[in-house]
Amino acid sequence: MKNPDLNRSDIVIRIAWLYYTYGLTQEEISKQLNLSRPMVQRLLAQANSEKLIKINIDHPMVQCLELEKKLMEQHNLRFCRVCPAPGIEFSQVLPGLATLGASVLEEFIRKSEPTTIAIGTGRTIRACVRELKSQDMSQHRIAS
132 near 106, Cβ under 8 Å? Predict the structure, then answer.
């Protein structure tokens, strides 16, 4: 390291702070601290591996993502989506749930390899199907 005023631990923290808090590029940091860009990259990787970086996303959607992860782990699911609906009644949730459900179904239907898609019945499924765009995907089977 070319900057004698800082020890390695201090410089790792400083680089992480400049990069994550102030949004400076690795190139900008390298010029500011008189280090090579590859050295800045290595020290950022070190900060990550030493768990010095914690990213906090402040958005209601985070709760949905955390719930998806828990559901997948607890029920051994390969795929799960949770629709955000804080404090509103089911009748108000249905349009958003139908849109999300239709987009998930379309992801599976777009795949070229043949797939069997099993779906249930009820208002939610009916609303999802109504949101689907008409497509010819004869390689798939739908089971209900």
Answer: yes
CATH code at 39? 1.10.10.10
Give 91-112 pLDDT, tens digit per residue. Answer: 788 888 899 889 988 888 888 8
Q: Report the domain count for the chain.
A: 3
Range of the domain at 124: 87-143
Whole-model pTM? 0.56
Question: Which residue from 100, 97, 106 is spatially nearest to 140, judged by alpha carbons?
Answer: 106
Q: Residue 61's Cα: distance from chain center in Å?
A: 10
Q: What is d(CA 42, CA 92) in angstroms, rounded to the nearest whole number?
A: 49
Rounded-to-integer distance, Cα 125 and Cα 144, Å: 11
Which residues of 6-143 form beta strands (DSSP E)?
116-118, 141-143
For the segment 1-24, what is each residue's pLDDT rounded down to a tens digit?
A: 454 556 888 999 999 999 999 999
